[in-house]
Amino acid sequence: MHFLRIESRALHYRAIGLSPSKPSIVFINSLGTDFRIWDEVVERVAPDYGIILYDKRGHGLSDSGNAPYSINDHVDDLIALLSHLHQGPVIVWGLSVGGLIAQGLYARRPDLVRAMVLSNTAHKIGTAEMWNARIAQIEAGGIESLLGPIMERWFTPRFREAGNALYAGCCTMLIQQSVTGYNGTCAAIRDADFTDAAREIKVPVLCVAGDADGSTPAELVKGTAGLIPGSRFAVIENAAHIPCIEQPDACVAAVRGFLSSLPEN
Predict the structure, then answer these.
(1) Which string of DSSP letters, residue by residue, matches 42-60?
(2) How far is Cα 72 from Cα 109, in angstroms, rounded to an integer?
(3) Of 14, 21, 52, 226, which residue is least crowded by CB atoms under 10 Å?
(4) Looking at domain 2-260, which of 3.30.450.20, 2.102.10.10, 2.30.30.100, 3.40.50.1820 is its CATH number?
(5) Cβ-based neighbour number of residue 155 at 10 Å
(6) Which residues of the chain have pLDDT under 70?
(7) What are φ and ψ of residue 93, in 5° steps?
(8) Residues 6 or more apart in contact with residue 101 via CB below 8 angstroms
(9) What sections of the chain are H helices per DSSP?
């Protein structure tokens, strides 16, 4: 295990095969998950790319720090990690709130971003009323009180079958997350709006949607792609909000062509 001390907090990360001879991808996980959600994707792309994984603050093994957060707080952590690893510009592959963090990184430090894969995300996600209601529900009843509705948005009915051990593990992963970190990041999503910033993105971007995503529907992701000049859009079939778990082969297939088309520098 590797940890980076940032002020009074420890950020959990993992770096695999970083080398000047190949491009690096930094993966940013979604709300209520840790970086293990990328395991199957990393296994498929690691031979060709350097890999950077990390638990954003308040998730996995990273400290929660002072909540609530802003997207800029999460961006600060990512900038510190890339500096520590002497990496950049990198390919940024962000899922859900990870996509908001990716957009925030580009807005702050475009020199650190070579390209972006914005998966199951948008320029703006949800409404203040929706996020405030979720925060209140979790404060009252804990994350487990919303387990069912969250899983219905994360995964298709077929994946949610009782006999699927991977699904059971994902449920456990969610309910073991820090309430402080979860709600702190809900606030960051609530307050984030990259509608104008998306129009100013000048690096290659692929926007990816799941055809059954209940959190960031395909039309919302497509709308974000429409804001970003020259961006591409792809839909993964039989996948909801976390295709890197539910459909890793299709997820990698959708992204690999985009990655191979990137210029050398």
Answers:
(1) HHHHTTTSEEEEEPPTTST
(2) 11
(3) 21
(4) 3.40.50.1820
(5) 27
(6) 265
(7) -115, 105
(8) 28, 56, 71, 74, 75, 78, 94
(9) 39-45, 71-84, 97-108, 128-141, 147-154, 165-175, 179-191, 195-198, 218-227, 243-246, 248-260
